[in-house]
Every structure is written in C-alpha cells, then in structure tokens.
Amino acid sequence: MQPTKVILIACGSFSPPTIMHLRMFEIARDHLHRLGNHIVIGGLISPVHDAYGKTDLVSSTHRLAMIKLSLQNSEWVKLSDWECNQETWTRTRQTLQYHQNKLNSILNSSNNDFNNVNEDDYSWMPDSFRNGCNGPVQVKLLCGADLLESFAVPGLWADEDIETIIKHHGLVVVTRENTNPLKFIYNSDVLTRLMANITIVTEWITQDISSTKIRRALRRSESVKYLLPDKVIDYIYKNSLYGTRGIKYLFAPTPFLTPSPSDVIMESPSPRHNPCFSVCNSDILSIPLLNTNLLINRVDSINKANINTAKHPGQAIKIITESSGEHKLLKDGKSDTKQGSLKRPACLL
Ligand SMILES: Nc1ncnc2c1ncn2[C@@H]1O[C@H](COP(=O)(O)OP(=O)(O)OP(=O)(O)O)[C@@H](O)[C@H]1O
Ligand SMILES: NC(=O)c1ccc[n+]([C@@H]2O[C@H](COP(=O)(O)O)[C@@H](O)[C@H]2O)c1
Questions:
Q1: Which residue has the higher pLDDT, 129 or 253?
Q2: Complex ipTM > 0.95
Q3: In this protein, which residues make up the domain named Cytidyltransferase-like (predicted)?
Q4: How far is CA 267 from CA 135, 183, 275, 288, 332, in A?
Q5: Residue 125: its H or E element
Q6: Atom of ligand 2 nearest to the CA of 89
Q7: Which of 15, 187, 199, 312 has its CA 20 to 30 A from that of 229?
Q8: What is d(CA 67, CA 78) in angstroms, rounded to the nearest whole number?
Q9: What Å distances lie between residue 302 and 281, 286, 307, CA to CA?
Q10: What is the largest CA-CA distance in the chain?
Q11: Contact 301, 258 (CB under 8 A)
C-alpha cells in the first residue's frame, strides 16, 4: 500500500512562536516517516484570529510577521494567514476543512490547474504540491498534548467537531511536560474509539518551553536567546511587544542588578573598553537591546568615575620559587618581597 501524503497543520496562538512550535513539526515528521505509512509533504502554521481574545495575544499583524521570520530557515513548513484574515475566530474543524477543500479542488482539476486560484489561496501549499502532485493529500491536525487535553474542557469543543477532526483528518499529538495523552485517550470513550487516527509522538528531548513562559521572561527583561529565533527576538524588542518597553534595568553583559550600598565595584581581569552600567532610566529603552554594543547616553544612579578601568586585579601575577624554596610574587616583572613572599608552596594557593 502506498503511504498517505500528509500536510500537518498546527493551529494556535503563536504569541510568540517558539522553537518548540518549530520542533513539533520536525519530531512529528520523523515519527510518521518511521512508521512508514505516511509521507509528510508539508507543514502549516495557522495562527488564530485576534478575536480568539486569549491573554497576551498580540495582533495578528505581529504574529504573522514573527511566524514568517521563524520560518525563514524551514524548507517545508509554511504560514497560512487564512484564519487571521477571516471576519472572526474560526473553529479548528473549519480551518482543517478549508485547507483540505482547497487542496482537493486543485487535485480534482485537470492537470492540477492553479489558473483559477488566487495566489493568496495557495501560497501556503507545499512547493512539491504546487509543482505537480497526484493525490490524495490528507490535512492532519498537529498539536501538543495540552491541546488534546483541552478537548475535555466543558463547552470548548463541540463533540461533533472532535469526531470530525479525528475521523476525517487525523490527529498527531506531541507529548508535552505534565501531560499524558495515552491516559487521556484511555479515559475518553470517543477518543478510544477513534484511536486509530490519533498518532502520539513522544518528544524525548524534552524542553518545557511555552509562549507563556517566554512572555514572562520578556516582561522581566530576562534573556530568551535560543528559545526563540534571533530574528523574532529582534522583532519583539523593535516593536516593544510583551512588555519589553517597560524594562527598568538593562544589563549588558553583567548579571548584577542595581548596586546595593554595600556593593564593591569589582575590577575586571582585563581592560574594559565598554564598562557596563546598571541603568535606571527607561528613556534609553528604545536602544536596540540585542545589538549589544550599547551606547548609553544617560546614567542616573551610577557615577561613571567610580568604574575603575585602570587596574586589573585578577590578572596573572608571576609566582617564582627561589633557591631557598620560598615562593614570591613577581609584580610588573619585579619581585615584591614585602607583599609577595609566600609561606606555602604555590600549588596550595
Ligand atoms: N513545548 C511544546 N511541546 C509540544 N507542543 C507544543 C509546545 N509548545 C507549544 N506546543 C503546541 O503548539 C500549538 C500552538 O501552541 P500555542 O501557540 O498555544 O503555544 P503555547 O506555548 O501552548 O502558548 P501559551 O503558553 O500562550 O498557551 C499547540 O498545539 C501546542 O500544544
Ligand atoms: N472549538 C474549537 O474549534 C476550538 C476550541 C478551542 C481552541 N481551538 C483552537 O485551538 C488552538 C488553541 O490555541 P491556544 O492553545 O493558544 O489557546 C487555537 O487555534 C484555537 O482556535 C479550537
């Protein structure tokens, strides 16, 4: 039997898109290919309409832009802006149906005819499909196990939608921290009945990353590097999303917060050309954070003169052992007997 051609579609907020949203596609494709009965010909990210109204859902203009940036390095996952361009929120069943119908209409036309289709209607289609594909192609819902478990939230999903999504399309579920999709299926009569169309993919390289946690870190001006694509981080700061405008303190690259009265300014082991300051002035927040050569114009609470760039304690000092067996420190090339004489062997220092 020929393997079924599949397009995986992930529906969600993507506010912001994280590396785990992208990983989800890779993990699922590997798994389906290993099972041998599916060929994944494409992936789609379909961000939800603004009217979904979830907390911290930034406008679809921003989410679409961030997803586009995230997908720049993906050869097979594309963006579908269809949901965002509708009048209002669309149920997931309809989203799957829309994309399936569009593919079917092309497959059913003579010679995969794209002539009567608007470019916007098929920009999301995989390149291999656009270059000529013989069907059938099945659109499956790709999701994390938390979305599967949201099926149990009273009033959130219509029973017939759950049934149609699984029966007519199929579900590919990636495990996530604190979820147990197999147990969840076991506890549901409907899901157990439809189990043949649900593929559970275990993510062994676990990363408990969520958009919620990323937003929290951004709000607290903590680093989110390596959790989001760099270009997405740049975009977030440039557009002051997720509370990044209100940052009170900027640190580059020292991890210390505001100096307490008892703080001693530490001297660096090597000359510092760009001393770091704690900054207590939100006027400078528009400075691009991520291009780290910060040019700080105004520093409220720290006197620049306090920052000692001349001495570098910690820099290696030569320790010599004299014929008597005594150890001495050599400073500026000269032995300093007053301060430098050591009572113990150097290796015990
Ligand atoms: N770390 C992850 N592991 C597996 N699936 C994930 C992960 N993060 C997100 N997903 C899945 O990606 C899809 C879209 O997710 P969504 O935009 O809701 O992200 P989220 O991180 O769960 O967001 P939020 O924290 O805002 O609720 C959902 O199916 C979700 O389960
Ligand atoms: N009845 C439904 O079709 C239904 C209900 C709840 C969420 N959803 C979808 O699930 C996704 C959930 O995203 P979040 O996890 O970000 O809330 C969204 O794409 C949303 O549209 C669909």
A1: 129
A2: yes
A3: 9-216
A4: 68, 57, 10, 27, 18
A5: none
A6: 21
A7: 199
A8: 9
A9: 11, 20, 9
A10: 98
A11: yes
Ligand at minimal distance from the CA of 165 is 2
Which residue puts its alpha carbon closest to atom 21 of ligand 1?
210
Q: Which pLDDT value is given to residue 69? A: 98
Instruction: Quote the tokens at residue 273.
Output: 């050309």
- Ligand whose nearest atom lies closest to the CA of 26: 1
3-state secondary structure of 313: coil
Closest Cα to residue 96, out of 30, 21, 172? 172
d(CA 237, CA 243): 9
Q: What CA–CA distance (Å, rounded) separates 251 from 279?
A: 8
Handedness of CA 65, 70, 73, 75 (dihedral sign): negative
| Residue whose entry in the numeric block shows the structure tokens 């969520």 | 210
Q: Report which ligand 2 atom has the smallest distance to the Cα of 90.
A: 21
Strand order in the sheet with 77-79: 77-79, 38-47, 4-12, 137-144, 171-174, 198-201
Rounded to a whole number of angstroms, the CA Rg of the chain reads 29
Task: List the 318-321 sheet strands across, edge first.
Answer: 318-321, 327-331, 334-335
Tell me phi and psi for residue 29, to 5 degrees: -65, -45
How many whole angstroms from 67 Cα to the centroid of ligand 2? 17
Question: Tens digit of pLDDT for each residue in 183-227?
Answer: 999 999 999 999 999 999 999 999 899 999 999 999 999 999 999
Range 320-338 average pLDDT: 47
Phi, psi for 306 (deg, rounded to 5) = -70, -15
Directed axis angle between helix 60-70 and helix 230-238, to 10°? 150
Full-model pTM: 0.76
Nearest atom within ligand 2 for CA of residue 157: 1
* Neighbour-count burial of 1, counting CB atoms closer than 10 A to its CB (0-12 exposed, 13-18 middle, 19+ buried): exposed
